[in-house]
Design a protein that fits this description.
463 residues, six-stranded mixed β-sheet
């Protein structure tokens, strides 16, 4: 058997992150933080933003459910934020089409609950109507152009208007003079106590609409999308009050809308079509369908944080699950969990960052330091065997399937590795029912490479 040659990992060209720590623990014990997660639909989800930042930044555990890897999803459109960067605002900016999608999602939920079309339309109109939020006027913004080329003093104070032909800095922002800075900041940050709708509209009608929206939206309890408003019997009431208030508060967004108008009304009708210029404005509205970014941990990552590092508590209902219970539950959810976790624990202890290798047809992908810095070096298939390398293999490979898997791995600039987890022949199933069995498990790696006859012939000639 030929000896495997270690090839250094391929570093990524553009790296915008700094390496903080291999694990979310502190050696001195000063900055140690106990994170919390919960099991939803056989998935381990972390909701607390501080826990998400802690787990991902220190060890790259999990992935964002709405992002490729790092949980950086934001409702704001980056292109629109750059376009309107001249306005001094601290609110998400989205396109009109994207906002209409959120309205349609909320409408479908209302219809599923049995509301008629008239009630659905009334509820959404009251909830998504423009709000009179005070915007901060840009300091030093120059107003250029004639008065007929921009929105005049009759423009509502809920809008920021601009022409598509002007620069990003020429923004007209009208804010009430009788509003103090504290109120402005509270409204921009979405403080429910400073909700202007409760001031300008009927309080009883508004509360009824909000109640209907909350009751309906809470029926959409999938962890990917929900409004954040929780029912009384929900198991999420144990979360901290700050997270609750943040999620239950209405989310204010700025919607970029377009309108067509003539530049100069005195022009004749022959050139009216040429003088039509699209004007863009930002209208403040409430988001009827909120989407939150959560961190999803694989079963192996979650158990490693609980068992090996002791920095995570996983809840199912009101009580946290013990290590033995997690070992049992995860084995029922994923029949090959014991095998894959042993391989995960082994490679983590060697300094690698294992991630799920499903997209390459394997169990694990091994990264050096983390996915932001290097491409994956190995695609790993884990198998549990006895002392004689015999046993019921999870995925017996034929020469044809092995060749195809190896070709797929090589085309992705990786190497295929077979990790055999060797357990003693006298180990019983009772011992395997606890994670303590890993103390008697040994690991053996085997790298699979394609045999090239011409390459071997040239090597023999050199010898």
């Amino acid at each position: 058997m030929a000896e495997a040659v270690f090839h250094p990992p391929r570093r990524k060209r553009r790296v915008f992150e700094s390496y903080e720590s291999p694990f979310p623990v502190d050696v001195g014990g000063k900055d140690f933080r106990m994170c919390q997660a919960e099991i939803i639909n056989n998935n381990v989800i972390v909701r607390n933003p501080e826990d998400i930042e802690q787990l991902y930044n220190k060890g790259y555990f999990g992935k964002g459910i709405l992002s490729r890897s790092r949980p950086v999803y934001s409702i704001s459109d980056p292109l629109l934020v750059t376009k309107w960067q001249g306005a001094n605002i601290n609110m998400p900016i989205i396109a009109s089409k994207k906002y209409q999608c959120h309205v349609q999602w909320a409408k479908s939920i209302l219809q599923e609950q049995g509301f008629d079309d008239c009630s659905v339309t009334k509820i959404l109109e009251n909830y998504t109507k423009p709000l009179e939020l005070p915007f901060l006027e840009e300091d030093g913004a120059e107003q250029t152009g004639n008065s007929c080329n921009r929105m005049g003093p009759t423009t509502e104070n809920t809008e920021l208007s601009r022409q598509s032909s002007t620069d990003t800095g020429n923004v007209v922002a009208l804010s009430p003079e009788n509003q103090n800075e504290g109120y402005k900041k509270a409204c921009l940050e979405g403080d429910p106590a400073c909700d202007p709708v409760a001031i300008c509209g009927s309080k009883e009608q508004e509360q009824g609409d909000l109640k209907e929206i909350a009751e309906v939206s809470c029926q959409k309890h999938g962890f990917l999308m929900h409004c954040g408003c929780k029912a009384k019997e929900s198991t999420e009431q144990r979360s901290c009050e700050t997270i609750k208030s943040k999620e239950c508060a209405p989310e204010y967004v700025l919607v970029q809308e377009e309108e067509e108008g003539s530049l100069c009304p005195e022009d004749d009708s022959a050139h009216a079509q040429e003088n039509l210029v699209k004007k863009e404005k930002l209208v403040c509205r409430r988001n009827p369908f909120r989407i939150f970014e959560y961190l999803q941990l694989s079963l192996e990552e979650a158990f490693f944080l609980v068992y090996a590092l002791g920095c995570l508590s996983i809840y199912y209902g009101e009580e946290p699950l013990t290590i033995l219970k997690l070992w049992e539950v995860f084995s029922e959810v994923k029949p090959n969990f014991k095998t894959t976790y042993m391989a995960y624990h082994y490679f983590r202890s060697k300094g690698w960052v294992p991630k799920v290798g499903l997209k390459y047809g394997t169990d694990l992908l091994l990264y050096r330091k983390g996915p932001p810095f290097y491409h994956a070096s190995y695609s790993v298939i884990a198998e549990l065997v006895d002392d004689n390398f015999e046993g019921s293999l999870r995925r017996p490979l034929s020469w044809k399937s092995l060749s195809g898997l190896n070709r797929t791995t090589v085309n992705a600039s990786k190497e295929l590795m077979l990790c055999y987890l060797i357990r003693p022949s006298d180990m019983t199933e009772k011992e395997m029912s606890t994670p303590e069995c890993m103390k008697r498990i040994k690991a053996q790696e085997l790298i699979v490479t394609r045999w090239v006859s011409s390459r071997e012939r040239s090597e023999q000639d050199e010898l």
